Amino acid sequence: MINASDLVRDEVHELAPYNSGLTVREVNERYGPAKIAKLASNENPLGPSPDLDSITMADSDLLRLYPDPAGVELREAIAVALDVASTQIILGNGSEELISIICRAVLRPRDRVVTLYPSFPLHEDYAALMGASVERVNVKGNMSVDVDTFEKKIATPARMVIFSNPMNPVGSWLAPAELSRVIAAADKNTLIVVDEAYAEYAAGEDYVSAIDLLKGSRRPWVVLRTMSKAYGLAGLRIGYGVVADPEFRSLLDRVRTPFNVNAIAQVSAVKALADRQHLQRVVTLAASERQRVQAFLLANDWPVAASKGNFLFFDCAGNAADFAEGLLRYGVIVKPWKQAGYETFVRVSVGSPDENNQFMSAVLSLTSQDVSHSSAIADG
Ligand SMILES: *Cc1c(COP(=O)(O)O)cnc(C)c1O
Known about the structure:
Elements: H1 4-7, H2 10-14, H3 24-31, E1 37-38, H4 72-82, E2 89-92, H5 95-106, E3 112-117, H6 121-129, E4 133-138, H7 147-155, E5 160-164, H8 176-185, E6 191-195, H9 199-202, H10 210-214, E7 221-226, E8 239-243, H11 246-253, H12 263-274, H13 276-299, E9 311-315, H14 320-328, E10 332-333, E11 335-336, E12 345-349, H15 353-379
Parallel strand pairs: 1-10, 3-4, 3-5, 5-6, 6-7
Antiparallel strand pairs: 2-8, 7-8, 9-12, 11-12
This protein binds pyridoxal-5'-phosphate (PLP).
Subunit structure: Homodimer.
Catalytic activity: L-histidinol phosphate + 2-oxoglutarate = 3-(imidazol-4-yl)-2-oxopropyl phosphate + L-glutamate
Pathway: Amino-acid biosynthesis; L-histidine biosynthesis; L-histidine from 5-phospho-alpha-D-ribose 1-diphosphate: step 7/9
């Protein structure tokens, strides 16, 4: 027997397994529901732009040849769309990989990293893996960002500040003035990483991308975006980062594997980015359905955080893992939160109208069952 436990670094033992939830196949095997509403990973119910149908893998060199290691065409398309230089763009095998690349490139043991909490666990995990010490800024009681505490924490220089805006899992966000305050409060040598996985959903009133605030500033920063959410390409694994300057980007670039973004992902992302109409359909549907599901949760007397993402975070007033397990029997997959202090919270993605209906009726079946169950106990 090998002694794997001694073989790996101490930091690896500290990491919790990623809470990715059950796959459709696992739910089918366990419960065999008539249909499944997968609302645990914030995927897009409309999928990608129909323009992707014209990509034919077999007929071209997409599969036979290595992809462009520099991703030139895609980086240029992104640069034009965001009005930055293509030399500022780095591509990742999902934006997750970019979080890992940044942490590996920048963090030394015992470095201070500040993040918001509850958080996207990978913001903490990759930092912890490098031996950094992570400090969290908890949301306020109403689930909004505690900007005052955040400012205080980063007034002491940290190597890196990393957070998502809108926040995942919470959905709440830093308004333009709040984001400006946070950027101003961070030491000029602190790397600011803003993960904007849901920026396309949030765009509009009361939201500004950090790209607009940081562009042209002389401090280190990276803004992360993904094609997995509003562009509906989670299965292809592609994300990108906008980096403060070309020199920093090329140093980060050395840390990635040379062919990290596959050829199909690259051509698909170019097509997806060009279809503004499809994006608008996705965002409009998510906004109206989010409102409908939010009203339902509030009617159940469950506190729900305000959200600009395609998901809602609510307190189910009981053990979230049991709640989520109960919903599986109705074919509904949600994500029970597992971070300390939030074990009664559930994150549910906003799906198609049908999927959301399935979620709501499953919740009603579950809660009415609970009521009859507990009254039976009370009676007996
Ligand atoms: C979904 C999500 C990601 C992951 O994006 P990929 O590009 O699929 O790796 C990154 N950050 C946050 C906050 C997310 O919610």
